[in-house]
Design a protein that fits this description.
The chain has 216 residues and is mainly alpha-helical. It folds into 2 domains: 39-122, Up-down Bundle (Four Helix Bundle (Hemerythrin (Met), subunit A)), CATH 1.20.120.1760; 125-215, no CATH class. It has 9 helices and no strands. The longest helix has 35 residues, at 181-215. The radius of gyration is 18 Å and the shape is globular. The chain starts with a helix and ends with a helix. The relative contact order is 0.13. Belongs to the CDP-alcohol phosphatidyltransferase class-I family.
Length: 216
Protein backbone atom coordinates (compact mmCIF):
# COMPACT_ATOMS: atom_id res chain seq x y z
CA UNK A 1 0.00 0.00 0.00
CA UNK A 2 2.81 2.43 0.88
CA UNK A 3 4.50 1.74 -2.45
CA UNK A 4 1.26 2.38 -4.34
CA UNK A 5 0.76 5.67 -2.50
CA UNK A 6 4.35 6.68 -3.24
CA UNK A 7 3.87 5.85 -6.94
CA UNK A 8 0.66 7.88 -6.91
CA UNK A 9 2.39 10.83 -5.22
CA UNK A 10 5.30 10.76 -7.64
CA UNK A 11 2.88 10.90 -10.56
CA UNK A 12 1.05 13.94 -9.19
CA UNK A 13 3.83 16.06 -7.69
CA UNK A 14 6.76 17.47 -9.69
CA UNK A 15 10.23 16.39 -8.50
CA UNK A 16 11.00 19.94 -7.32
CA UNK A 17 8.23 19.61 -4.71
CA UNK A 18 9.24 16.08 -3.70
CA UNK A 19 12.93 16.95 -3.39
CA UNK A 20 14.10 13.53 -4.53
CA UNK A 21 15.22 14.10 -8.12
CA UNK A 22 16.00 17.00 -10.48
CA UNK A 23 13.00 18.86 -11.82
CA UNK A 24 11.80 18.36 -15.37
CA UNK A 25 13.13 14.88 -16.07
CA UNK A 26 10.13 12.62 -15.51
CA UNK A 27 9.95 9.03 -16.71
CA UNK A 28 13.10 9.33 -18.82
CA UNK A 29 15.15 10.29 -15.75
CA UNK A 30 13.60 7.49 -13.71
CA UNK A 31 14.45 4.93 -16.37
CA UNK A 32 18.05 6.13 -16.49
CA UNK A 33 18.43 5.86 -12.71
CA UNK A 34 17.03 2.29 -12.57
CA UNK A 35 17.92 -0.95 -14.31
CA UNK A 36 16.37 -1.05 -17.77
CA UNK A 37 13.50 -3.56 -17.78
CA UNK A 38 13.58 -3.88 -21.57
CA UNK A 39 10.81 -3.57 -24.12
CA UNK A 40 8.32 -6.17 -22.87
CA UNK A 41 6.88 -4.57 -19.73
CA UNK A 42 3.41 -3.88 -18.37
CA UNK A 43 3.75 -0.06 -18.74
CA UNK A 44 4.88 -0.47 -22.37
CA UNK A 45 1.82 -2.65 -23.01
CA UNK A 46 -0.39 0.27 -21.93
CA UNK A 47 1.60 2.61 -24.18
CA UNK A 48 1.03 0.19 -27.08
CA UNK A 49 -2.68 0.20 -26.23
CA UNK A 50 -2.67 3.98 -26.61
CA UNK A 51 -1.29 3.65 -30.12
CA UNK A 52 -4.01 1.12 -30.97
CA UNK A 53 -6.71 3.53 -29.73
CA UNK A 54 -5.66 6.45 -31.93
CA UNK A 55 -7.24 5.46 -35.27
CA UNK A 56 -10.54 4.17 -33.76
CA UNK A 57 -10.80 7.38 -31.72
CA UNK A 58 -10.29 9.57 -34.80
CA UNK A 59 -12.86 7.57 -36.79
CA UNK A 60 -15.33 7.81 -33.90
CA UNK A 61 -14.91 11.60 -33.77
CA UNK A 62 -15.62 11.89 -37.49
CA UNK A 63 -18.82 9.89 -36.85
CA UNK A 64 -19.75 11.67 -33.63
CA UNK A 65 -23.24 12.59 -34.86
CA UNK A 66 -24.13 8.92 -35.14
CA UNK A 67 -22.58 7.69 -31.87
CA UNK A 68 -21.76 10.65 -29.58
CA UNK A 69 -20.63 8.39 -26.71
CA UNK A 70 -18.03 6.39 -28.61
CA UNK A 71 -15.35 9.10 -29.13
CA UNK A 72 -15.69 10.21 -25.50
CA UNK A 73 -15.05 6.67 -24.23
CA UNK A 74 -12.08 6.04 -26.54
CA UNK A 75 -10.38 9.38 -25.93
CA UNK A 76 -10.99 9.13 -22.17
CA UNK A 77 -9.27 5.72 -22.12
CA UNK A 78 -6.42 7.12 -24.22
CA UNK A 79 -5.98 10.02 -21.78
CA UNK A 80 -6.18 7.78 -18.70
CA UNK A 81 -3.58 5.32 -19.96
CA UNK A 82 -1.16 8.24 -20.35
CA UNK A 83 -1.07 8.38 -16.54
CA UNK A 84 -1.47 4.64 -15.92
CA UNK A 85 1.70 3.60 -17.74
CA UNK A 86 3.85 5.94 -15.63
CA UNK A 87 2.09 4.87 -12.43
CA UNK A 88 2.70 1.19 -13.22
CA UNK A 89 6.34 1.86 -14.10
CA UNK A 90 6.88 3.33 -10.64
CA UNK A 91 4.76 0.73 -8.85
CA UNK A 92 6.34 -2.30 -10.54
CA UNK A 93 9.85 -0.83 -10.88
CA UNK A 94 9.68 -1.47 -14.62
CA UNK A 95 11.59 1.45 -16.11
CA UNK A 96 12.37 1.29 -19.81
CA UNK A 97 14.41 3.58 -22.04
CA UNK A 98 12.28 2.39 -24.95
CA UNK A 99 9.08 3.24 -23.09
CA UNK A 100 10.42 6.64 -22.04
CA UNK A 101 10.97 7.53 -25.70
CA UNK A 102 7.74 5.92 -26.95
CA UNK A 103 5.43 7.60 -24.42
CA UNK A 104 5.76 11.23 -25.66
CA UNK A 105 5.46 10.02 -29.27
CA UNK A 106 2.10 8.49 -28.42
CA UNK A 107 1.10 11.80 -26.82
CA UNK A 108 2.10 13.85 -29.85
CA UNK A 109 0.54 11.62 -32.51
CA UNK A 110 -2.63 10.74 -30.61
CA UNK A 111 -3.44 14.18 -29.27
CA UNK A 112 -2.52 15.83 -32.57
CA UNK A 113 -4.77 13.60 -34.69
CA UNK A 114 -7.65 13.90 -32.21
CA UNK A 115 -7.44 17.70 -32.28
CA UNK A 116 -7.30 17.68 -36.10
CA UNK A 117 -10.43 15.50 -36.20
CA UNK A 118 -12.24 17.83 -33.78
CA UNK A 119 -11.23 20.81 -35.91
CA UNK A 120 -12.59 19.09 -39.03
CA UNK A 121 -15.88 18.56 -37.19
CA UNK A 122 -15.95 22.26 -36.27
CA UNK A 123 -15.65 21.59 -32.54
CA UNK A 124 -12.33 23.41 -32.09
CA UNK A 125 -10.98 26.63 -33.66
CA UNK A 126 -8.56 26.19 -36.54
CA UNK A 127 -5.94 28.52 -35.04
CA UNK A 128 -5.29 26.14 -32.11
CA UNK A 129 -4.15 23.25 -34.30
CA UNK A 130 -2.18 25.61 -36.54
CA UNK A 131 -0.30 27.03 -33.54
CA UNK A 132 0.46 23.58 -32.12
CA UNK A 133 1.63 22.30 -35.50
CA UNK A 134 3.78 25.39 -36.16
CA UNK A 135 5.56 25.05 -32.80
CA UNK A 136 6.22 21.33 -33.32
CA UNK A 137 7.56 21.87 -36.85
CA UNK A 138 9.78 24.75 -35.71
CA UNK A 139 11.23 22.65 -32.87
CA UNK A 140 11.83 19.71 -35.21
CA UNK A 141 13.67 21.93 -37.69
CA UNK A 142 15.76 23.41 -34.86
CA UNK A 143 16.73 19.99 -33.51
CA UNK A 144 17.73 18.84 -36.98
CA UNK A 145 19.78 21.95 -37.69
CA UNK A 146 21.49 21.76 -34.31
CA UNK A 147 22.13 18.05 -34.92
CA UNK A 148 20.85 17.04 -31.51
CA UNK A 149 20.48 13.27 -31.59
CA UNK A 150 19.01 12.79 -28.13
CA UNK A 151 15.54 14.07 -27.35
CA UNK A 152 15.16 16.56 -24.54
CA UNK A 153 13.53 15.55 -21.27
CA UNK A 154 9.83 16.27 -20.94
CA UNK A 155 9.31 19.06 -18.41
CA UNK A 156 6.53 19.27 -15.85
CA UNK A 157 5.32 22.43 -17.56
CA UNK A 158 5.00 20.36 -20.71
CA UNK A 159 3.14 17.65 -18.83
CA UNK A 160 0.76 20.27 -17.41
CA UNK A 161 0.09 21.58 -20.90
CA UNK A 162 -0.58 18.07 -22.18
CA UNK A 163 -2.88 17.27 -19.25
CA UNK A 164 -4.85 20.50 -19.72
CA UNK A 165 -5.21 19.87 -23.45
CA UNK A 166 -6.33 16.28 -22.93
CA UNK A 167 -8.81 17.39 -20.27
CA UNK A 168 -10.13 20.01 -22.69
CA UNK A 169 -10.52 17.45 -25.48
CA UNK A 170 -12.45 15.14 -23.15
CA UNK A 171 -14.67 18.08 -22.19
CA UNK A 172 -15.32 18.94 -25.84
CA UNK A 173 -16.38 15.33 -26.49
CA UNK A 174 -18.42 15.07 -23.29
CA UNK A 175 -20.65 17.95 -24.45
CA UNK A 176 -22.39 16.00 -27.27
CA UNK A 177 -22.44 12.80 -25.20
CA UNK A 178 -24.37 14.46 -22.35
CA UNK A 179 -25.98 17.10 -24.54
CA UNK A 180 -24.31 19.86 -22.50
CA UNK A 181 -23.13 22.60 -24.85
CA UNK A 182 -21.46 24.51 -21.98
CA UNK A 183 -19.13 21.56 -21.39
CA UNK A 184 -18.01 21.64 -25.02
CA UNK A 185 -17.36 25.39 -24.72
CA UNK A 186 -15.37 24.92 -21.50
CA UNK A 187 -13.33 22.13 -23.06
CA UNK A 188 -12.59 24.31 -26.09
CA UNK A 189 -11.27 27.05 -23.80
CA UNK A 190 -8.97 24.52 -22.09
CA UNK A 191 -7.58 23.37 -25.45
CA UNK A 192 -6.99 26.98 -26.53
CA UNK A 193 -5.17 27.73 -23.27
CA UNK A 194 -3.18 24.55 -23.87
CA UNK A 195 -2.22 25.86 -27.32
CA UNK A 196 -0.90 29.08 -25.76
CA UNK A 197 1.04 27.06 -23.17
CA UNK A 198 2.38 24.97 -26.05
CA UNK A 199 3.98 28.11 -27.48
CA UNK A 200 5.55 28.99 -24.13
CA UNK A 201 6.81 25.43 -23.65
CA UNK A 202 8.15 25.47 -27.20
CA UNK A 203 10.19 28.57 -26.38
CA UNK A 204 11.52 26.82 -23.28
CA UNK A 205 12.50 23.71 -25.25
CA UNK A 206 14.17 25.88 -27.91
CA UNK A 207 16.26 27.66 -25.27
CA UNK A 208 17.23 24.30 -23.77
CA UNK A 209 18.22 22.98 -27.20
CA UNK A 210 20.42 26.02 -27.79
CA UNK A 211 22.15 25.58 -24.42
CA UNK A 212 22.77 21.89 -25.13
CA UNK A 213 24.15 22.73 -28.57
CA UNK A 214 26.49 25.40 -27.25
CA UNK A 215 27.66 23.12 -24.47
CA UNK A 216 28.35 20.36 -26.98
Amino acid sequence: MNKALTALRDGLLPPSLRGDEPAGQGRAAQSSSHADSGVVTVPNAFTALRFLLIIPAVIAILQIQERPWMPLVLVAIFSLTDWVDGFLARLLDQFSEFGAKLDPIADRIGLGLVIIALTVEGMLPLWAILVIAAVDVALLVMLVRLRLREGMAVTWAGKLRTALTMLGVVGVLAGPAFDWSWLTALGSVCVQVGAVLHVLNGIGYARTALRISRGA
